[in-house]
Amino acid sequence: MTEDLWGARGTTGVSFAATLEFEEVDVRLGGRVVLDRFSLALRPGEIVCLLGESGSGKSTALRVAAGIQPVHGGTVRINGEVVSLPIRTVPPDRRGIGLMFQDFALFPHLTVLQNVLFGLKPLGRAAAMGQAQAALRRVGLAGREADYPHMLSGGQQQRLALARSVAPRPGVLLLDEPFSSLDARLRETVREETLAVLRETNVTSLIVTHDPEEAMVLGDRVALLRHGRIAQIGTAAEIYRQPVDLSAARFFSPLSEISSTVTSGHASTPLGQVATPGLANGTKVVIAIRPAGGANVSASGPGTAGRVISKRDAIGIDICEVKIDGVETPIGIRQPSNAAIAVGHDVFVTLNPEHVLVFGCD
Questions:
Q1: Rounded to whole angstroms, how far apart are CA atoms 146 and 278?
Q2: Which pLDDT belongs to residue 350?
Q3: Bridge partner list, 123
Q4: What separation in angstroms does the CA of 172 have from each of 62, 99, 168?
Q5: Helices marked H in 14-54
Q6: Does residue 291 contact residue 332 with C-beta atoms inside 8 Å?
Q7: Where are the beta strands (DSSP E) in 95-155?
Q8: Does residue 54 have a pLDDT over 90?
Q9: Is 96 left (phi over 0), alpha (psi -120 to 50) or beta?
Protein backbone atom coordinates (compact mmCIF):
# COMPACT_ATOMS: atom_id res chain seq x y z
CA MET A 1 0.00 0.00 0.00
CA THR A 2 1.20 3.55 -0.72
CA GLU A 3 1.15 4.60 2.92
CA ASP A 4 3.76 1.91 3.61
CA LEU A 5 6.23 3.49 1.14
CA TRP A 6 8.93 5.94 2.13
CA GLY A 7 9.11 9.24 0.27
CA ALA A 8 11.69 10.19 -2.32
CA ARG A 9 15.26 10.39 -1.07
CA GLY A 10 16.97 13.74 -1.08
CA THR A 11 13.85 15.66 -0.04
CA THR A 12 14.65 16.11 3.66
CA GLY A 13 15.68 19.60 4.78
CA VAL A 14 19.36 20.07 5.64
CA SER A 15 20.45 20.82 9.21
CA PHE A 16 23.28 23.08 10.33
CA ALA A 17 25.34 20.25 11.80
CA ALA A 18 26.98 20.94 15.15
CA THR A 19 29.89 19.43 17.04
CA LEU A 20 29.23 17.40 20.20
CA GLU A 21 31.99 16.92 22.77
CA PHE A 22 32.14 15.02 26.05
CA GLU A 23 35.26 15.83 28.06
CA GLU A 24 36.05 13.54 31.04
CA VAL A 25 32.40 13.33 32.06
CA ASP A 26 31.57 11.61 35.35
CA VAL A 27 28.09 10.47 36.34
CA ARG A 28 27.20 8.64 39.55
CA LEU A 29 23.77 7.13 40.15
CA GLY A 30 22.84 5.55 43.47
CA GLY A 31 26.46 5.53 44.56
CA ARG A 32 27.53 3.68 41.40
CA VAL A 33 29.89 5.16 38.81
CA VAL A 34 28.02 5.03 35.47
CA LEU A 35 30.26 7.27 33.36
CA ASP A 36 33.92 7.38 34.33
CA ARG A 37 35.90 10.24 32.74
CA PHE A 38 33.95 9.59 29.56
CA SER A 39 35.38 11.44 26.55
CA LEU A 40 34.03 11.49 23.00
CA ALA A 41 33.97 14.09 20.21
CA LEU A 42 31.65 14.06 17.17
CA ARG A 43 32.45 16.07 14.07
CA PRO A 44 29.72 18.02 12.21
CA GLY A 45 27.55 15.66 10.17
CA GLU A 46 29.19 12.55 11.61
CA ILE A 47 27.21 9.48 12.68
CA VAL A 48 28.71 7.75 15.73
CA CYS A 49 27.24 4.59 17.21
CA LEU A 50 27.74 4.12 20.93
CA LEU A 51 27.83 0.40 21.46
CA GLY A 52 27.92 -1.56 24.71
CA GLU A 53 26.35 -4.15 26.91
CA SER A 54 23.43 -3.38 29.18
CA GLY A 55 24.66 -1.26 32.08
CA SER A 56 27.75 0.02 30.28
CA GLY A 57 26.50 3.63 30.48
CA LYS A 58 25.53 4.26 26.87
CA SER A 59 21.97 5.50 27.53
CA THR A 60 23.28 7.68 30.36
CA ALA A 61 25.71 9.30 27.91
CA LEU A 62 22.77 10.08 25.63
CA ARG A 63 20.79 11.56 28.52
CA VAL A 64 23.78 13.72 29.42
CA ALA A 65 24.00 15.03 25.85
CA ALA A 66 20.27 15.77 25.92
CA GLY A 67 20.51 17.72 29.16
CA ILE A 68 18.24 15.27 30.99
CA GLN A 69 21.03 13.90 33.20
CA PRO A 70 23.29 16.31 35.14
CA VAL A 71 27.01 15.52 35.31
CA HIS A 72 29.11 15.18 38.46
CA GLY A 73 32.35 15.97 36.68
CA GLY A 74 33.67 17.05 33.29
CA THR A 75 32.16 19.15 30.52
CA VAL A 76 29.79 18.75 27.57
CA ARG A 77 29.93 21.18 24.63
CA ILE A 78 27.68 21.62 21.61
CA ASN A 79 29.25 23.71 18.85
CA GLY A 80 31.87 24.80 21.35
CA GLU A 81 29.32 26.13 23.84
CA VAL A 82 29.39 24.59 27.31
CA VAL A 83 26.02 22.99 27.99
CA SER A 84 26.83 20.74 30.97
CA LEU A 85 28.97 21.32 34.03
CA PRO A 86 28.56 20.01 37.58
CA ILE A 87 27.22 23.43 38.56
CA ARG A 88 25.07 24.14 35.49
CA THR A 89 22.97 22.24 32.95
CA VAL A 90 21.48 23.96 29.91
CA PRO A 91 17.93 22.56 29.45
CA PRO A 92 17.13 20.31 26.48
CA ASP A 93 15.04 22.88 24.62
CA ARG A 94 18.00 25.29 24.48
CA ARG A 95 20.54 22.81 23.08
CA GLY A 96 19.48 22.62 19.42
CA ILE A 97 19.11 18.85 19.62
CA GLY A 98 16.60 16.28 18.41
CA LEU A 99 15.66 13.19 20.41
CA MET A 100 14.38 9.84 19.24
CA PHE A 101 13.61 7.34 21.98
CA GLN A 102 13.30 3.57 21.99
CA ASP A 103 9.57 3.73 22.73
CA PHE A 104 9.09 6.63 20.23
CA ALA A 105 7.52 8.83 22.98
CA LEU A 106 4.75 10.06 20.70
CA PHE A 107 1.93 12.22 22.05
CA PRO A 108 -1.14 9.94 21.94
CA HIS A 109 -3.63 12.82 22.14
CA LEU A 110 -2.13 14.65 19.13
CA THR A 111 -2.58 13.78 15.47
CA VAL A 112 0.33 12.71 13.27
CA LEU A 113 0.70 16.26 11.95
CA GLN A 114 0.36 17.82 15.41
CA ASN A 115 3.08 15.52 16.75
CA VAL A 116 5.52 16.85 14.15
CA LEU A 117 4.39 20.47 14.56
CA PHE A 118 5.01 20.29 18.32
CA GLY A 119 8.76 20.80 17.91
CA LEU A 120 8.31 23.61 15.40
CA LYS A 121 6.57 26.14 17.66
CA PRO A 122 9.37 28.75 17.39
CA LEU A 123 8.73 29.01 13.64
CA GLY A 124 5.89 30.93 12.07
CA ARG A 125 2.81 28.88 11.20
CA ALA A 126 3.50 28.74 7.47
CA ALA A 127 7.17 27.74 7.91
CA ALA A 128 6.26 25.18 10.57
CA MET A 129 3.57 23.63 8.38
CA GLY A 130 5.96 23.43 5.42
CA GLN A 131 8.71 21.68 7.37
CA ALA A 132 6.27 19.30 9.07
CA GLN A 133 4.62 18.27 5.83
CA ALA A 134 7.98 17.81 4.09
CA ALA A 135 9.18 15.54 6.91
CA LEU A 136 5.98 13.48 6.79
CA ARG A 137 6.24 13.11 3.00
CA ARG A 138 9.81 11.89 3.35
CA VAL A 139 8.84 9.11 5.78
CA GLY A 140 5.78 8.13 3.75
CA LEU A 141 3.10 9.44 6.13
CA ALA A 142 1.71 12.35 4.10
CA GLY A 143 -1.66 10.65 3.83
CA ARG A 144 -1.94 10.00 7.56
CA GLU A 145 -1.73 13.56 8.91
CA ALA A 146 -5.14 13.44 10.65
CA ASP A 147 -4.62 10.00 12.21
CA TYR A 148 -3.51 9.41 15.79
CA PRO A 149 -0.42 7.37 16.78
CA HIS A 150 -2.45 4.34 17.94
CA MET A 151 -3.82 4.04 14.40
CA LEU A 152 -0.32 3.45 13.00
CA SER A 153 1.68 0.24 12.83
CA GLY A 154 4.91 -0.08 14.82
CA GLY A 155 6.99 0.74 11.76
CA GLN A 156 4.85 3.78 10.97
CA GLN A 157 5.15 5.01 14.56
CA GLN A 158 8.92 4.73 14.26
CA ARG A 159 8.79 6.77 11.04
CA LEU A 160 6.61 9.40 12.72
CA ALA A 161 9.13 9.64 15.56
CA LEU A 162 11.89 10.14 12.98
CA ALA A 163 9.90 12.83 11.17
CA ARG A 164 9.26 14.67 14.42
CA SER A 165 12.96 14.48 15.30
CA VAL A 166 14.35 15.83 12.02
CA ALA A 167 11.60 18.35 11.15
CA PRO A 168 13.12 21.13 13.34
CA ARG A 169 16.46 20.51 11.56
CA PRO A 170 18.50 20.12 14.76
CA GLY A 171 22.27 20.45 14.87
CA VAL A 172 22.56 17.18 16.84
CA LEU A 173 20.24 14.16 16.81
CA LEU A 174 20.29 11.61 19.65
CA LEU A 175 18.78 8.18 18.98
CA ASP A 176 18.32 5.63 21.78
CA GLU A 177 17.96 2.03 20.49
CA PRO A 178 15.70 3.36 17.69
CA PHE A 179 15.03 0.00 16.01
CA SER A 180 14.88 -2.41 18.94
CA SER A 181 11.07 -2.54 19.07
CA LEU A 182 10.70 -3.46 15.39
CA ASP A 183 10.44 -7.02 14.17
CA ALA A 184 13.25 -8.45 12.02
CA ARG A 185 11.20 -8.11 8.82
CA LEU A 186 10.92 -4.34 9.24
CA ARG A 187 14.18 -3.55 10.96
CA GLU A 188 16.51 -3.73 7.98
CA THR A 189 14.36 -1.53 5.72
CA VAL A 190 13.61 1.04 8.42
CA ARG A 191 17.28 1.15 9.40
CA GLU A 192 18.37 1.69 5.81
CA GLU A 193 15.87 4.49 5.21
CA THR A 194 16.64 6.14 8.55
CA LEU A 195 20.33 6.18 7.64
CA ALA A 196 19.42 7.80 4.31
CA VAL A 197 17.45 10.51 6.14
CA LEU A 198 20.37 11.18 8.50
CA ARG A 199 22.71 11.52 5.52
CA GLU A 200 20.31 13.87 3.72
CA THR A 201 19.89 16.15 6.70
CA ASN A 202 23.63 16.03 7.48
CA VAL A 203 22.71 16.12 11.17
CA THR A 204 25.40 15.11 13.66
CA SER A 205 24.02 11.87 15.11
CA LEU A 206 24.79 9.82 18.21
CA ILE A 207 23.05 6.43 18.10
CA VAL A 208 22.95 4.13 21.11
CA THR A 209 22.68 0.42 20.37
CA HIS A 210 23.61 -2.96 21.83
CA ASP A 211 23.73 -4.62 18.39
CA PRO A 212 27.27 -4.79 16.89
CA GLU A 213 26.01 -5.41 13.35
CA GLU A 214 23.68 -2.43 13.56
CA ALA A 215 26.48 -0.20 14.85
CA MET A 216 28.82 -1.24 12.05
CA VAL A 217 26.15 -0.69 9.37
CA LEU A 218 25.10 2.76 10.62
CA GLY A 219 28.16 4.43 12.10
CA ASP A 220 30.92 6.43 10.45
CA ARG A 221 32.66 5.45 13.66
CA VAL A 222 31.76 2.98 16.38
CA ALA A 223 32.61 3.62 20.04
CA LEU A 224 32.69 0.56 22.29
CA LEU A 225 31.70 1.56 25.82
CA ARG A 226 32.80 -0.56 28.76
CA HIS A 227 32.29 0.30 32.45
CA GLY A 228 31.57 3.94 31.62
CA ARG A 229 34.63 4.50 29.42
CA ILE A 230 35.41 4.18 25.72
CA ALA A 231 37.34 0.93 25.35
CA GLN A 232 37.86 1.42 21.60
CA ILE A 233 36.71 3.76 18.86
CA GLY A 234 37.19 3.59 15.12
CA THR A 235 35.56 2.68 11.84
CA ALA A 236 33.64 -0.59 11.62
CA ALA A 237 36.54 -2.18 9.74
CA GLU A 238 39.11 -1.01 12.29
CA ILE A 239 37.36 -2.30 15.38
CA TYR A 240 36.35 -5.57 13.73
CA ARG A 241 39.76 -6.37 12.27
CA GLN A 242 41.86 -4.97 15.09
CA PRO A 243 39.91 -5.27 18.36
CA VAL A 244 41.72 -3.79 21.31
CA ASP A 245 41.48 -6.97 23.36
CA LEU A 246 39.83 -10.39 23.54
CA SER A 247 36.73 -9.02 25.26
CA ALA A 248 36.19 -6.53 22.43
CA ALA A 249 36.64 -9.29 19.84
CA ARG A 250 34.09 -11.48 21.63
CA PHE A 251 31.59 -8.61 21.63
CA PHE A 252 31.62 -8.31 17.84
CA SER A 253 31.26 -12.00 17.02
CA PRO A 254 31.43 -15.49 18.50
CA LEU A 255 34.95 -16.91 18.52
CA SER A 256 36.62 -20.31 18.54
CA GLU A 257 39.53 -19.97 20.98
CA ILE A 258 42.71 -22.06 21.19
CA SER A 259 45.37 -21.58 23.87
CA SER A 260 49.01 -21.73 22.84
CA THR A 261 52.53 -20.40 23.54
CA VAL A 262 54.74 -18.24 21.34
CA THR A 263 57.86 -19.90 19.93
CA SER A 264 60.06 -18.10 17.39
CA GLY A 265 57.32 -15.71 16.31
CA HIS A 266 54.61 -18.34 15.94
CA ALA A 267 52.05 -20.22 18.01
CA SER A 268 51.34 -23.86 17.29
CA THR A 269 47.74 -25.07 17.04
CA PRO A 270 46.15 -28.30 15.79
CA LEU A 271 45.18 -26.24 12.71
CA GLY A 272 48.77 -25.18 12.03
CA GLN A 273 51.12 -22.35 12.89
CA VAL A 274 49.84 -18.84 13.50
CA ALA A 275 52.13 -15.78 13.29
CA THR A 276 52.49 -13.79 16.54
CA PRO A 277 54.37 -10.63 15.56
CA GLY A 278 55.68 -8.54 18.45
CA LEU A 279 55.17 -11.19 21.12
CA ALA A 280 58.14 -12.64 23.02
CA ASN A 281 59.00 -16.32 23.18
CA GLY A 282 57.13 -18.07 25.96
CA THR A 283 54.18 -15.65 25.92
CA LYS A 284 50.87 -17.39 26.59
CA VAL A 285 48.35 -16.49 23.88
CA VAL A 286 44.79 -17.13 22.78
CA ILE A 287 44.24 -17.78 19.09
CA ALA A 288 40.73 -16.51 18.23
CA ILE A 289 39.06 -17.70 15.03
CA ARG A 290 36.02 -15.83 13.72
CA PRO A 291 33.26 -18.03 12.28
CA ALA A 292 32.92 -15.86 9.16
CA GLY A 293 36.16 -16.11 7.20
CA GLY A 294 38.40 -17.40 9.99
CA ALA A 295 38.52 -20.92 8.59
CA ASN A 296 37.32 -22.84 5.58
CA VAL A 297 35.95 -26.36 5.53
CA SER A 298 36.05 -28.58 2.45
CA ALA A 299 35.29 -32.19 1.60
CA SER A 300 38.87 -32.82 0.45
CA GLY A 301 42.34 -31.68 1.46
CA PRO A 302 44.58 -29.92 2.05
CA GLY A 303 43.94 -28.97 5.66
CA THR A 304 43.52 -30.44 9.11
CA ALA A 305 41.20 -33.42 9.36
CA GLY A 306 37.96 -32.95 11.30
CA ARG A 307 34.38 -34.14 11.49
CA VAL A 308 31.19 -32.12 11.04
CA ILE A 309 29.10 -32.49 14.20
CA SER A 310 26.39 -29.95 13.33
CA LYS A 311 25.22 -28.03 10.28
CA ARG A 312 22.43 -25.52 9.70
CA ASP A 313 21.41 -23.87 6.45
CA ALA A 314 20.84 -20.11 6.84
CA ILE A 315 19.60 -19.13 3.35
CA GLY A 316 22.69 -19.88 1.32
CA ILE A 317 25.07 -19.99 4.28
CA ASP A 318 26.23 -23.13 6.08
CA ILE A 319 26.67 -22.72 9.84
CA CYS A 320 28.84 -25.64 10.87
CA GLU A 321 30.61 -26.98 13.92
CA VAL A 322 33.66 -29.12 13.22
CA LYS A 323 35.43 -31.27 15.82
CA ILE A 324 39.22 -31.21 15.51
CA ASP A 325 41.48 -33.55 17.50
CA GLY A 326 43.40 -31.54 20.07
CA VAL A 327 40.89 -28.65 20.18
CA GLU A 328 38.67 -28.70 23.26
CA THR A 329 35.54 -27.21 21.70
CA PRO A 330 34.26 -27.53 18.10
CA ILE A 331 35.33 -24.86 15.60
CA GLY A 332 32.44 -22.67 14.43
CA ILE A 333 32.45 -21.92 10.70
CA ARG A 334 30.11 -19.89 8.45
CA GLN A 335 30.61 -20.21 4.70
CA PRO A 336 28.64 -20.48 1.44
CA SER A 337 26.42 -23.57 1.27
CA ASN A 338 28.06 -26.77 0.13
CA ALA A 339 25.79 -29.79 -0.38
CA ALA A 340 28.84 -32.08 -0.28
CA ILE A 341 29.25 -31.37 3.45
CA ALA A 342 26.87 -32.96 5.94
CA VAL A 343 26.76 -33.93 9.61
CA GLY A 344 29.06 -36.89 10.26
CA HIS A 345 31.25 -36.24 7.23
CA ASP A 346 35.02 -36.19 7.53
CA VAL A 347 36.30 -32.82 6.26
CA PHE A 348 39.41 -30.69 6.09
CA VAL A 349 39.83 -27.30 7.75
CA THR A 350 42.24 -24.54 6.74
CA LEU A 351 42.85 -21.25 8.52
CA ASN A 352 42.53 -17.83 6.88
CA PRO A 353 45.21 -15.77 8.68
CA GLU A 354 43.48 -12.46 7.82
CA HIS A 355 40.55 -13.37 10.10
CA VAL A 356 42.52 -15.05 12.87
CA LEU A 357 43.28 -12.90 15.93
CA VAL A 358 46.03 -13.34 18.50
CA PHE A 359 45.81 -12.01 22.05
CA GLY A 360 48.28 -12.27 24.89
CA CYS A 361 46.88 -13.79 28.08
CA ASP A 362 46.57 -11.47 31.07
A1: 65
A2: 94
A3: none
A4: 11, 9, 11
A5: none
A6: yes
A7: 97-100
A8: no
A9: left
The length of the chain is: 362
- Contact between residue 84 and residue 67 where contact means Cβ atoms under 8 Å apart: yes
Task: Compute the C-alpha angle 121/123/127, nearest 5°.
Answer: 120
Residue 322's alpha-carbon distances to 100, 301, 311, in angstroms, are: 44, 15, 9
Closest CA to 52 of 216, 217, 209: 209
Question: Which candidate, 74, 65, 119, 121, places its Cα nearest to that of 95?
Answer: 65
160, 152 in Cβ contact below 8 A? Answer: yes
Q: Phi/psi zone of residue 11: left (φ > 0), alpha (ψ -120 to 50 degrees), beta?
A: alpha
CB 218 within 8 A of CB 229: no
At how many degrees (to 10) do helices 154-166 and 184-201 cross?
10
Count of beta carbons in the 10 Å neighbourhood of residue 6: 18
The C-alpha atoms of residue 319 and residue 337 are separated, in whole angstroms, by 9
CB neighbourhood size of 298 (10 A): 15
Q: What digits encode the pLDDT tens for the residues 3-31? A: 458 877 767 778 889 999 999 999 999 98
Segment 280-301 mean pLDDT = 93
DSSP code of residue 15: P
Separation of alpha carbons 184 and 1, rounded Å? 20
